[in-house]
Amino acid sequence: MVNCEPDSVNASELSAKKSDFTKMRGLSASQLVADMGPGWNLGNALESENNETAWGNPVTTKEMINTIAARGFKTLRVPVRWDDSYSDPSTYTIKTEFMNRVEEVVNYGLQNGMYVIINVHHNDLQSMVSTDTSVQKRVKDELTAIWKQVGNRFKSYGDMLILETINEPRFEEDWNGTTALYNCVNEYNEVSRAAIRSTGGNNTSRLIMMPTYAASSDSPKISTWKKLSEDDMIAVSVHAYLPFDFAFDAKGHSNWTESDYYDLNAVFLRLNSTFVKKGLPVVMGEFGATGKENVADREKFAKAYAKFAKKYHMSCIWWDNNLFGKGAEMFGIFNRSSLSFVYGGIADAIINVYKNNQDDDDDDDNAPLFKGSSSASNWGQAVTAPTSRYGGRLDPSTVKQGGYFYVEYSGTKDQVELIFQSLSGGNNWCKVTMSESGSINGHYFAKFSYDNCVKAFGNNFGELLDIIHVGATDKPITVYLLSYNQK
Asked: Which residue intervals define the domain Glycoside hydrolase family in the entry (predicted)?
């Protein structure tokens, strides 16, 4: 029988346990995030309304976390709702017994050698991103109060403990937002960061995770995320239940497709080019795919996430709310009551990618930029493929000597054009000369060499190449494939 009571603990025991977790190893933010590896969320527990079991889950026990760690997960994210546990709401004072309980669960992870993340999750302020300065002041005051209390409690803990400023901040249920709201999130992140740092101790150099608007990985949200102070121990926090139709929409398609795979690749390319390549590590704090009686496809999904995350030195953390079966938000993989993995294959798909030092056979650098069927005539465009600078799949900085663009099409041989477009101050519209052509798979193909691309556009692809088009001349064509291939 599973013990459904938390391990008993008192203040002296907590103080003794803290001394075991004080080490700061001097790792950079990027080194630390790369070491976090695969993670698991203790969802719908300490962030539940009013008490830990309010949303139907059992009290969290050390045995649960022992089992998670033994499987191979290296990071435990513990969402925490603080505002239901204020002893004095007017000053945002957190009840001592609740702070003790959070610390107890944190220790469950640390005692297993795991990284542990705690945050502000489902507080009312989460949906109070606003352009109203009075609302902003109220939220900033509360965030400051929370993080000073939490910071003081945990300031002697070592760098295996990570603090995340706020979960999915947004205006009410507006998941799209505006530039003004994105800037407000940056300000909320900054006041939280400053409050944590002000508590001293190990918090002066602890890793802090700061989200985009709604923790979104969409282009507008990530492009406007920014630090408002010089602080190197920061990681960007994003969530991604993508592709949405497969991962989140209970009525969406249930089979994991090649198109899903390459759409996901585009998400990670975007995160890499926006953040990682600039020295800002990324933590995928939540991801998952709801159950649709499609376990094998969810395993493929999980493996793909882990593969891309590992490739770009990110940690990815599965959202587990302990709900199983078919339908909306059925993200559970580990049954907390029976201490057993219902979907162990999903867990292993994530964990094994991080354990495996060998690269996968398929090469995402040669991934199709377009695959399907699209027609054009009379100088029209059959395919328009943004680069990762505009949310597409190809990171243009990877266009190097020896590479080439490849187009497969039907219609009239050699009547196809490759066009580069810059919206960033480069050549606005230029045609690349074909370097090779022929027949394959019952279609025609055309290759456009790196040298010819440079002759047409110049070699500053990484900063200037925004969109790639495949167009027709005065003869109709149908395009089936556009790819970039690096020898």
From this structure: 45-322
Under a CB-based contact definition with an 8 Å cutoff, are residues 388 and 273 in contact?
yes
Domain positions in the chain:
11-355, 364-485
Residues constituting the chain: 487
Catalytic residue among 103, 104, 190, 286: 286
Q: Report the pLDDT value the prediction gives residue 358, as an integer from 0 to 100.
A: 47
What is the arithmetic mean of pLDDT over 376-380? Answer: 95
Task: Output b/e per residue, 155-188; b: 16+ Cβ within 10 A.
Answer: bbbebbbbbbbbbbbbbeeeeebeeebbbbbbeb
Burial of 287 from C-beta contacts in 10 A (0-12 / 13-18 / 19+):
buried
d(CA 2, CA 79): 23
Nearest-5° Cα angle at 117, 167 to 184:
30
Active site residue 190: no
pLDDT per residue over 91-123, tens digit each? 999 999 999 999 999 999 999 999 999 999 999
Q: 3.20.20.80, 3.40.50.300, 2.40.50.140, 3.30.2350.10: which CATH number matches 11-355?
A: 3.20.20.80
- Catalytic residue chosen out of the listed positions 168, 190, 299, 417: 168
DSSP symbol at 214:
G
DSSP H helices, 225-373, are: 244-247, 258-274, 295-311, 344-355
Q: What's the average model confidence in pLDDT over 444-467? A: 96
Q: Is-catalytic flag, 329?
A: no
Instruction: Name the average pLDDT for the chain.
Output: 93
The residue type at 269: L
- The string of pLDDT tens digits covering residues 179-216 is 999 999 999 999 999 999 999 999 999 999 999 999 99
Q: What's the fold here for domain 364-485? A: Jelly Rolls (2.60.120)
Cα separation of 475 and 260, whole Å? 32
What are the pLDDT digits (tens) for 344-365? 999 999 999 999 864 444 445 5
